[in-house]
Amino acid sequence: MASNKSPIEQQLTALSEKFKDIGQPLDHQLEGLVHAKPINYWDYIQTDALLNLQVQRTVFPDEMVFIMYHQVNELLFKMILWELQQIADIENLTTSFFSSKLGRISRYFDMLTASFTIMSEGMDLEQYLKFRHTLSPASGFQSVQYRQIEFASTDLINLIDERFRKEFLKKIDTKQQFTEAFYDKAFEHLYWQAAGKDFTTGKKTYTLKQFELKYKEPLLRFIKTFKGLNLYSKFQTLPERSKQDPNLREAMRHYDHTVNIKWVMAHYNTARYYLNQGKQPLEATGGSEWAKYMHPKYQKRVFFPSLWSTEELKNWGQEV
């Protein structure tokens, strides 16, 4: 039966039910609306706060480009994590929902990859080689959101340093996994530990030690939370027909290739441009052996290994 109520009366009824559910009288909420200020763009976006987050450490103008570019990256990382969290949280996952979120995530990373010309062509070389010394020992390696994206994208085993992956696979095969000791040891052998640790002595750089002091415990909790809920795991829960769909498989491969080869190589080539200016490559601000840490052919980091052929995995990153 059609309602005789006007649209405004229907909205008031809906509001009354909404606030009744949380124990709030409608008249109090309506009075609050009467006295509330109209919203402005600058208040909603927090423009003033956002534009005051850029603090230079030197007098070089292009340091501002460097700061803002990395802040934009972090905002995009947050957008990616927002989508990954929704995939993790949904109980009755559908192929359409999964595909939609995957498309968003990939577009964000496509944007990140394409944007690296801002770094490679948008800063004066002489300025960068001077102001970079004030950044040490800070490093983009310390971006915790990027680490979270990796853990939310694939199973932990796929992020273990390639040199030690077989050892951890044996532990998983023999059910010696997912204890506190297992997680702690796995963390110590993640691929990016190579950027800040000598595996023969166990000695860590200051950059890595500070990162772990701030983020190791939160990251371990994050890893455990996304066990079975990461993008790769959720993909494997889809109906077999969906998992074999060529378009969806190609979308997964696109994301994997973009994050672990195109994005990494865009970063690598930019670093090489700035740091290979002399006879000997300059050291990264965090002190890492950046060439071997960053290039995908060394780490062979792959989010979705079952979607690639043996030959493709063997030659991972070699085309660049």
Task: Provide an overview of this structure.
The model has no long low-confidence stretch (mean pLDDT 89). The protein has one domain (63-314): Methane Monooxygenase Hydroxylase, Chain G, domain 1. It is built from 18 helices and no strands. Helix content is 61%, strand content 0%. It is mainly α and 320 residues long.
Helices, strands, pairings?
Blueprint lengths: L6 H15 L4 H10 L5 H5 L1 H4 L11 H28 L5 H20 L2 H5 L3 H7 L12 H10 L11 H9 L6 H9 L17 H20 L5 H5 L4 H4 L2 H30 L14 H5 L1 H4 L10 H5 L6
Helix pairs in contact: 5-6, 5-9, 6-15, 9-12
For this entry, give a set of tags:
320 residues, mainly alpha, Methane Monooxygenase Hydroxylase, Chain G, domain 1, 61% helix, 0% strand, globular
Summarize it.
This protein has 320 residues and is mostly helical.
Distance between the termini: 66 Å
In the residues, how many domains can be counted?
1
Q: What would you call the shape?
A: globular
Derived from helix and strand composition plus strand pairing, the structural class reads: mainly alpha
Biggest β-sheet strands, sense, barrel: none
